[in-house]
Write a structure and sequence with these properties.
Layout: E1 14-16, H1 20-31, E2 36-39, H2 76-83, H3 94-110, E3 114-117, E4 121-127, E5 130-135, E6 140-143
Helix pairs in contact: 1-3
């Protein structure tokens, strides 16, 4: 698991935090053929704090048509909303965007390029062939 697989001399990728940024980094790396391990200790993989609400009154602050997670596909989230019966001009529920992001993460995991560790990363130390990440509760994850 190297960040520069073409040259074979990259750095293993560990991502701490499974909110929007961590999810999209893992998904983008997976699309590029780079493996990663995503650490999320709050049980909010793919949603993070911002999109893990269950309250339907919590809406996005911009229309669905402007919320795609993929820069190269600006209508991606809009299509998801429209498939569910909404419109691109709608201010979708935050929890709907959370489900959308979780789906992106699920696809990345299904690709075999992303591993999710449901634990809070506390520290990391470089080893000869990769990293050893200490997690809450005293465990360790080795990532090469």
């Amino acid at each position: 698991m190297r960040s520069d697989a073409r040259e074979g001399a990259g750095v293993p990728v560990a991502i701490v935090g499974g909110g929007f940024s961590g999810t999209m980094l893992a998904a983008e790396l997976a699309r590029r053929g780079v493996s990663s391990v995503l650490f999320e200790g709050m049980g909010r993989e793919g949603r993070g704090t911002a999109y893990s609400t269950i309250e339907p009154a919590h809406l996005l602050n911009v229309p669905a048509a402007k919320m795609s997670a993929w820069a190269g596909d600006p209508e991606h989230f809009q299509r998801v909303v429209e498939e569910a019966g909404g419109m691109g001009k709608d201010f979708a529920e935050r929890r709907a965007f959370g489900r959308y992001l979780r789906g992106i993460l699920d696809d990345a995991v299904a690709s075999g390029m992303v591993e999710v560790v449901q634990a809070r990363a506390l520290s990391a130390r470089r080893e000869r062939t990769g990293w050893r990440i200490n997690v809450e509760g005293g465990g360790e994850v080795e990532h090469n």
